[in-house]
Automatic annotation (TrEMBL):
EC number(s) per entry: 1.1.1.290
Record's GO cellular component terms: cytosol
Organism of derivation: Parabacteroides johnsonii
Residues noted as binding NAD(+) in the record, renumbered to the chain: D146, T175, A206, S207, R208, D232, G257
Residue ranges occupied by any D-isomer specific 2-hydroxyacid dehydrogenase catalytic domain in the UniProt entry: 21-280
The protein, known as: Erythronate-4-phosphate dehydrogenase
Residues that, per the record, bind substrate: S45, T66
Main location: cytoplasm
Length: 370
């Protein structure tokens, strides 16, 4: 079997080699010539799987180490009989922890506790549910908007987007990018949405850039309709809007899902898809694990104040990435390819927590030493 894999998919090299010839390519090297003899492609969101790439090839399976699959022309693949798979939920916890870290960073800077604030979550799937878990555990109120789910499961527990625009102190988007259909999300955060905002909410987009309309977002920010702005996803990545970068409170180069745990999950799911599709056994899958953190124990006694928040920001602090991107916005993709993948909360053990601190940190996902 021949596999062509993106050479920046972590923890992959050497794992599938016992059962396949694996050719590792940069994203730019994903050309019709280079993929035509592959049976399977292992891709990331930067590898556009279009008709132009695939037509005339013998590719039978595309498996993406990502949750989103807007980089795959699924209609063409379905027509051409090419199976395609994404990696549902692989980095959902990572995105939720990114959002939470961003909110905490701003809350600490402003001296405005998050407790008691209302967050509106737009898109309550794998990621949105994890965001809800963290925010509820921390004492925030949650409004949930998800019309496809509301239609399938009943309205209970869901609110219209307008209610979020009116009542939320923070709005965070976690929908897929879809361009067609009744629930299309392209430019969902557009002029109409921003006009309806009532409480100068903090605005977060860690879903896909085109879920917001850049001009409308710029306008809303300049007009003061938005209090704070956290952006991980941008229209037209990697060539991002420099004015928006300037106006963002926290700006990162599409790394919300880049925890080591999320990356390992994505890689493992791709290999499992290959096993299932081609009826083969990849013995080394068990070796796809994230590395142990450099300092797996977090001692709360080392912090002077805000002990819980400092513990949370130990593994990942968005300001480090934000600073780097502002200094070199032209290196957007370089930062992504050379990223130091942080571990998620579950990889850390907290020591010297009071019973109350231990309860909260456990609910957020940390290990606690009694
Ligand atoms: N920044 C990053 O690094 C990452 C970004 N993502 C993005 O986040 C998206 C969501 O991920 P998951 O939660 O895992 O996907 P999911 O498919 O589990 O959930 C998405 C939810 O959005 C809902 N939805 C669809 N259209 C909607 C609309 N018009 N309004 C409100 N809700 C709508 C769906 O019903 C579903 O419940 C992915 O598709 C991907 O584009 C995912 C991982 C990492
Ligand atoms: O999973 C998704 O969807 C994402 O947005 C990923 O975090 C993007 O990861 P890469 O495709 O850049 O590896």
């Amino acid at each position: 079997m021949k596999i062509v894999a993106d050479n920046t998919v972590p923890y992959l090299k050497g794992i599938a080699e016992p059962i396949a010839e694996v050719n590792y390519l940069t994203s730019k090297e994903f050309t019709p010539e280079n993929v035509k003899n592959a049976d399977a492609l292992i891709v990331r969101s930067i590898d556009k799987c279009t008709r132009e790439l695939l037509e005339g090839s013998r590719v039978k399976l595309i498996t993406s180490a990502t949750i989103g699959f807007d980089h795959i022309d699924t209609r063409y693949c379905d027509e051409a009989g090419i199976a395609w798979k994404n990696s549902p939920g692989c980095n959902a916890v990572s995105v939720a922890q990114y959002v939470f870290a961003g909110l905490l960073t701003i809350a600490l800077r402003k001296g405005e506790p998050l407790q008691g604030k209302t967050i509106g979550i737009v898109g309550v799937g794998h990621v949105g549910k994890e965001v809800e878990k963290l925010c509820s555990a921390y004492g925030m109120n949650v409004l949930r908007n998800d019309p496809p789910r509301a239609e399938a499961e009943g309205e209970d527990g869901f609110v219209p987007l307008d209610t979020i625009a009116e009542q939320a102190d923070i709005v965070t988007f976690h929908t897929p990018l879809t361009k067609e259909g009744r629930f299309a999300t392209r430019h969902l955060a557009g002029e109409d949405f921003f006009r309806k905002l009532q409480r100068k909410p903090w605005f977060v987009n860690a879903s896909r850039g085109a879920v917001h309309n850049t001009d409308a977002l710029l306008h809303a920010r300049k007009e003061g309709k938005i209090g704070e702005l956290i952006l991980d996803c941008w229209e037209n990545e990697p060539d991002i809007n420099r004015k928006l970068l300037e106006l963002a409170t926290i700006a990162t180069p599409h790394i919300a899902g880049f925890s080591a745990d999320g990356k390992a999950n994505g890689t493992r799911m791709c290999l499992e898809n290959i096993e299932k599709f081609f009826q083969v056994k990849i013995e080394k899958i068990g070796e796809v694990v994230p590395p142990v953190p450099e300092t797996p124990v977090i001692d709360l006694d080392r912090f002077d104040g805000n002990r819980i928040e400092q513990a949370i920001l130990t593994g990942f602090n968005p300001l480090t990435v934000d600073r780097a991107l502002r200094e070199h916005p032209d290196r957007f993709e370089w930062f992504r390819a050379n990223y130091h993948h942080p571990r998620e909360y579950g990889a850390y053990t907290i020591v010297h927590a009071t019973p109350e601190e231990a309860g909260l940190l456990r609910r957020l996902g940390f290990g606690i030493q009694q």
